[in-house]
Amino acid sequence: MEFRHLGRSGLMVSEISYGNWITHGSQVEEDAAHACVRAALDEGITTFDTADVYAGTKAEEVLGRALKGVRRESLEIFTKVYWPTGPGRNDRGLSRKHIMESINGSLRRLGTDYVDLYQAHRFDVETPLEETLRAFDDLVRQGKVLYVGVSEWSADQISQALKIAESMGFDRLVSNQPQYSMLWRVIEAEVVPLSEREGLGQIVWSPIAQGVLTGKYLPGQPPPAGSRATDTTGSRFMDSLMSDEVLRRVQELKPVAADHGLTMAQLAVAWVLQNPNVSSAIVGATRPEQVRDNVKAAGVKLDADTMRKIDEILGPVVERDPAKTVSPASRP
Ligand SMILES: NC(=O)c1ccc[n+]([C@@H]2O[C@H](COP(=O)([O-])OP(=O)(O)OC[C@H]3O[C@@H](n4cnc5c(N)ncnc54)[C@H](OP(=O)(O)O)[C@@H]3O)[C@@H](O)[C@H]2O)c1
């Protein structure tokens, strides 16, 4: 495993991290979840990403149990707050009340006294930014949270937060967690240049486009049994990735991966890691073999010709519009 700084902070994270959205507490059974976490640890992954909302709070519990007994100092545990975790009007968003309550639930479920990174899972248009940032800062002072970051915020929203933190003396954001893959490059135009200037690192999600970039989904054919596209919850998030045009072009990447002695999953993960503003690529997995496959992307270098070839193959199916970075217009 290779390690990178999380943005300009002193914290080191594994280049490849393991995340448990859709899988733990939902798509996969507890023993498979533990086997994946074990494989991640064996392969040198030290960084684990979850969220209060995943599997209706069950994902944090599964991760907490899977990591039980592992030396806490050898782990970086990341979680998030924003999406609804209960029926009440305050069980969501980034108000001081919900942040303070949600972190306590996360710590209890994860079985830890602190998380290494606490992330605002989206921008909350119904809470003044000062309120959220002061609550985050308080959590840092209380020692419940070591670093603070955001997820899927636009460049403008990150900029506003940095200005407020500067003028109020609050802890600075060190990271953003956006979707990023060969197919989804919307952060490149605005978020990455700002983050480079301001010292935020990207912890990118769905680097394998939820499995699509493994090439296992074939155009015009039903998805393979047991894959995310056959899972009732998981498939809801995959529609835009499953067009025949995307799947056909992805098949054409196979010789590129083979020329480099890489699997398709490794090529996909290696691709996001070529961007120096990426601190870590969070991979998901339903089986330990997938974790062992994906981690081999750490440290892989892709030359300019290969990067160009990938662009030519994917052509118009690559999404680049920065306006696609959006948070809900009102609280969910
Ligand atoms: N901040 C946010 O808003 C946000 C949103 C989404 C995700 N995330 C984070 O990012 C993490 C990763 O997201 P993701 O799970 O969508 O990432 P991903 O790595 O793109 O997709 C993971 C899925 O692809 C399939 N897969 C992975 N490796 C494979 C391999 N080597 N061969 C064949 N299939 C393989 C598996 O599903 P099947 O076996 O079921 O096909 C696996 O569960 C999440 O767990 C979460 O921590 C954050």
TrEMBL record:
Signal peptide: none
Residue ranges constituting the NADP-dependent oxidoreductase domain according to the UniProt record: 15-313
Gene3D superfamilies membership: NADP-dependent oxidoreductase domain
Keywords of this entry: NADP, Oxidoreductase
Transmembrane is among the record's keywords: no
Family matches, as InterPro entries: K_chnl_volt-dep_bsu_KCNAB-rel, NAD(P)_OxRdtase_dom_sf, NADP_OxRdtase_dom
Family: Belongs to the shaker potassium channel beta subunit family.
Name recorded for this polypeptide: Aldo/keto reductase family protein
Organism (species): Microtetraspora malaysiensis
